[in-house]
Specification:
The chain is an alpha/beta fold and about 160 residues long. The chain is about 35% helix and about 20% strand. The chain is built from 4 helices and 7 strands. A 7-stranded mixed β-sheet has the order 3-2-1-4-5-7-6, with helices on both faces. Strand 1, helix 2 and strand 2 form a beta-alpha-beta unit. Helix 1 runs parallel beside helix 2. The protein is globular, with a radius of gyration of 15 Å.
């Protein structure tokens, strides 16, 4: 039997493996990185420690993270992603090299509905060759799902690439 603790550990291990893979794969790109939702700030803190050559913009309704995991005001985009992601197309015409979203709620149906809503908003802001890492399966037309990297558990985190 897989326990809830097992599922949480699988998600965290997979999230780190997918993020590390995406960071390495996009290292030569100049475009910024987007973190969709800050939460406690653990993944932002991890990315900030491993991405030193690109700014990391956080899209969040309201910042309530651990104090060590807060972006500066100029790297924080406050508001609902239904508004801030479409506006990012104009603000960041070069797109993002890497986008991370941890939808991470306990209601799988609600997560899936949110993934379906946000997928078409993510597509136009991801740069060509860029990667999207998500805790949930997404629904893209122009992004291609990539194989799960070493260290990640299949189905616990997903990586997508914009090829064209």
């Amino acid at each position: 039997m897989t326990t809830r603790l097992d599922l949480f550990i699988h998600r965290m291990v997979s999230q780190r493996a997918c993020l590390d893979h995406a960071i390495a794969q996009t290292a030569g790109m100049a475009q910024p990185v987007f973190e969709l939702g800050l939460g406690n700030g653990r993944t932002y803190h991890h990315m900030r420690a491993h991405i030193t050559d690109r700014p990391i913009y956080v899209f969040e309704r309201a910042v309530a993270s651990h104090p060590d995991s807060r972006p500066t005001e100029e790297l924080t985009v406050l508001g609902d992603v239904r508004d801030t992601l479409p506006a990012a197309v104009t603000r960041f015409p070069q797109g993002a090299s890497l986008i991370h979203a941890d939808l991470g709620g306990h209601d799988l149906e609600k997560n899936d509905a949110f993934a379906r809503m946000i997928s078409p908003l993510v597509e136009p802001v991801l740069a060509f060759g860029g990667l999207m890492v998500s805790s949930d399966q997404m629904y893209f037309d122009a992004l291609e799902q990539q194989p799960t990297p070493d260290g990640a558990i299949e189905g616990r985190c997903f990586v997508y690439k914009r090829l064209a």
